[in-house]
Every structure is written in C-alpha cells, then in structure tokens.
Amino acid sequence: MNEEQQEYQRIRRLNVILVIIAALCSILIFGKSGVTVSAGVVIGGCAGILGFNSIIRMSEKVSGELQDASRFAYTRYMRRYLMYTVIFALAVWRGIHPIALLAGYLCNKLAILIDTARYKEGG
Predict the structure, then answer these.
(1) What is the chain's pLDDT, residue by residue, as a tens digit (123 residues)?
(2) What residues contact 20, with CB distance under 8 A and at least 6 apart?
(3) How far is it, in rounded angstroms, from Cα 50 to Cα 36?
(4) How far apart are CA 123 and CA 108, in angstroms?
(5) Which of 83, 115, 87, 90 is CA-nearest to residue 11?
(6) What confidence score (pLDDT) does residue 63 get?
(7) In this predicted structure, what is the pLDDT of residue 66?
(8) Rounded Cα gap, residues 117 and 111, in angstroms
(9) What residues form the membrane-spanning segments (predicted)?
C-alpha cells in the first residue's frame, strides 16, 4: 500500500470513528428521538465516504487532453452530487432530519481536515 492509499485509509477510519461518536452523542443528547438523528448521522457519514471514494477514483482516472479530462471530471462531479441528492432526498422522505444528514456528511470533511493537520509535510 503506497503513501496515498494509507492516507485515504486513515481518513476513512477517522471518518467512521467521528460518525460513531456523533451518533452516540445524538442518542445521549436527544434521548429517544436521537435514534433518528443517529440514523441521519450514519447515513450522511456513509454518503460522505461514498463521495470520498468517488473523488479518489476520479482523480486516479483523469488523464489525457485537458478538454477530455475536464469533461470526464465534470461528468463524475455531476454523478457524485446526484448520488448525494438521491441519498439525502430518500432519507428526508423517510423522516430523517436534514441537519443530521449534513452533520454525518461533515464528519468526512472533518476527518480530512484532522488528517491534513496531523500529517502535513514539515509539521
């Protein structure tokens, strides 16, 4: 496993830990209604991981002419946001609060930020 793959693995692992912590906190804070909040956090976290994996796959495949690469990247970008839209819309339709979904999704962004701060070059 190369250095990039190790970094991606660390980010995924940290994301799962953050989602679990957020889900448990929501149960403790919101009591019985915290179960749906926790479900939203977990669903949002899974969407974040799926999107992160999609970005990784896209970045590994982008090559060639700038015009072709740009079109490819745009197509993948649109697919990723369509996936987010479908996942979030279905979850909201089933009664999950959108803020809980966003909190779970943001766990992925926080994992990236933490990993970057911990392992940045020269630091």
Answers:
(1) 788 888 899 999 999 999 999 999 999 998 888 899 999 999 999 999 999 999 888 887 776 565 677 777 888 889 999 999 999 999 999 999 999 999 999 999 999 999 999 887 655
(2) none
(3) 21
(4) 22
(5) 115
(6) 62
(7) 59
(8) 10
(9) 12-31, 37-56, 81-106
Nearest to 55 by CA among 116, 112, 117: 112
Distance between CA 115 and CA 15 in Å, rounded?
10
Q: Which residue has the tokens 């819309």?
A: 89
Q: What is the secondary structure of 39-88 as a DSSP string?
A: HHHHHHHHHHHHHHHHHHHHHHH--S-HHHHHHHHHHHHHHHHHHHHHHH
Distance CA 32, CA 91 (A): 18
| Per-residue pLDDT at 87 | 96
Q: Determine contact, residues 70/11, Cβ cutoff 8 Å.
A: no
